[in-house]
């Protein structure tokens, strides 16, 4: 399957800085507004990652494209320009480390828990099937509707309910992970040292996985 190479953009004056490069399979969607990222050629992607020292660091903006570029076209290496390097303060380094810690945890959660588009589509199919049988399940009537399906002795509906509950468990796991991630973000943003950030990262990773 073909890989597509993406990069977030941060607009500043007549420049669009390239931040947080990432790659996805061609059939995977991007959970960002189309105005907030560009598609890179493989050569351009490798260059951006190399310049950012593999850190994907948002605070340290180094490479950019001119703001008048058509973001709906693939950005080539020739389109990319590079700022002169600047010395970083301790505060800059800490902010960069925070950005990296947030990105790494976001990727870890996404890789382990996020439903694929196919799984999400399957959940809605199951929900629609049960609704077509007269079982309109809401948060308020779940237990009642589950019992109705069980007592119906309809084996197909029971099978669909089992699949539905499995999918629902995945949704609940994702919601729980998201709540923990929000707490993690607050801890990282208020951290005053890399050791404190590392502690928050490994504590959450241990709880989730």
- In total, the number of strands is 5
Write the H/E string, N to C.
Answer: EEEHEEHHHHH
In helices, the fraction of residues equals: 40-55%
Sheet with the most strands, sense and barrel status:
5 strands, antiparallel
Identify low-pLDDT runs: 54-59
How many helical elements?
6
Question: Structural class per helix/strand content?
Answer: alpha+beta
- Beta-strand content bin: 5-15%
List the helices and strands and how they pair.
Elements: E1 3-12, E2 15-25, E3 37-40, H1 42-51, E4 63-66, E5 81-82, H2 90-113, H3 117-132, H4 142-152, H5 155-190, H6 194-208
Helix pairs in contact: 2-5, 2-6, 3-5, 4-5, 5-6
Explained architecture:
Helix 4 (142-152) packs antiparallel against helix 5 (155-190) and helix 5 (155-190) packs antiparallel against helix 6. This protein is 54% helix and 15% strand. It has helices spanning 42-51, 90-113, 117-132, 142-152, 155-190, 194-208, and strands at 3-12, 15-25, 37-40, 63-66, 81-82. It is an alpha+beta fold. It contains six helices and five strands. The chain is extended and about 70 Å long.
């Amino acid at each position: 399957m073909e890989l597509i190479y993406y990069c977030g953009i941060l607009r500043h004056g007549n420049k669009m800085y390239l931040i947080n490069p990432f790659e996805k399979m061609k059939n995977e969607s991007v959970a960002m507004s189309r105005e907030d990222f560009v598609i890179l050629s493989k050569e351009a992607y490798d260059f951006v990652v190399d310049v950012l020292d593999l850190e994907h660091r948002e605070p340290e903006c180094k490479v950019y494209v001119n703001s008048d570029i058509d973001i709906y076209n693939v950005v080539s290496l020739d389109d990319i320009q590079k700022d002169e390097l600047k010395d970083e303060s301790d505060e800059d380094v800490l902010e960069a480390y925070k950005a990296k810690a947030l990105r790494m945890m976001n990727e870890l959660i996404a890789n382990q828990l996020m439903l694929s588009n196919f799984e999400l589509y399957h959940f809605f199919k199951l929900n629609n099937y049960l609704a077509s049988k007269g079982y309109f399940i809401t948060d308020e009537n779940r237990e009642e509707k589950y019992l109705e399906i069980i007592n119906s002795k309809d084996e197909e509906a029971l099978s669909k309910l089992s699949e539905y509950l499995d999918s629902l468990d995945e949704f609940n796991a994702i919601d729980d992970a998201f709540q923990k991630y929000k707490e993690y973000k607050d801890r990282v943003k208020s951290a005053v040292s890399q050791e404190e950030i590392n502690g928050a990262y490994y504590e959450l990773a241990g709880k989730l996985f």
